[in-house]
């Protein structure tokens, strides 16, 4: 059976909340089978059941912690056992440390890097050969508006998301001749549990409403971008204007702004 003879399968990491859940719902509505990955099995099972019931698609769950170095290989192996070749990969899982780099235990720093740098890259590396063989694939990597913003003191997040942005563009150049589109999706402030996990909910709630987007809006623009072969997607008018305004900023000024806007002060 070829990809043209079956319903395509999407693997979504961090599928238990926020943008990940919105991606799962969007792709199910477009008649894609799903492999949902996250740490919270109960939420995944509930979402899988809902999407199967509503859309008649196959929805499988894999409970995994992508900060575990063994997780990416295990996930791809399990997908093969399920007989579900991965046609679409959404690298959404992520976090950000709530403390400064020097105050964060190394185990936590290493887990952050494993989750948002190594696991993202390894999952792509493991699924690309089959995509190249069938000459079709879609990969969405969650970057952030932070990737084009001044760096923040003590935070690895901007550096990590800059890596995701640049890596995605490089891979899109390499893989597009094989029918594979890679897009870095760079949302700004999005309503989700992210700020609760970071411990920055109070600060986030003080931001004006026009800065925020709903996860569904981010996903709709992101999926349209990867479908159209656009390597970068900055969703929302406010975010596009912000990104355009930050591009001309010289490095030294960007560094100064990053320190001035330091969330830990």
UniProtKB/TrEMBL annotation:
UniProt domain Ketoreductase: residue ranges: 8-166
Keyword Transmembrane appears in the UniProt entry: no
UniProt KW Oxidoreductase keyword: yes
Gene Ontology MF term list: oxidoreductase activity
Entry-linked SUPFAM superfamilies: NAD(P)-binding Rossmann-fold domains
A family per Pfam: adh_short
Gene3D superfamilies membership: NAD(P)-binding Rossmann-like Domain (3.40.50.720)
CDD domains membership: SDR_c
Alphabetical list of InterPro entries matching this protein: KR_dom, NAD(P)-bd_dom_sf, SDR_fam
Entry keyword set: Oxidoreductase
Record SMART domains: PKS_KR
Family: Belongs to the short-chain dehydrogenases/reductases (SDR) family.
PANTHER family, alphabetized: NADP-DEPENDENT 3-HYDROXY ACID DEHYDROGENASE YDFG (PTHR43086:SF3), VERY-LONG-CHAIN 3-OXOOACYL-COA REDUCTASE (PTHR43086)
Protein name as it appears in the record: Short-chain dehydrogenase
Annotated organism of origin: Gordonia alkanivorans CGMCC 6845
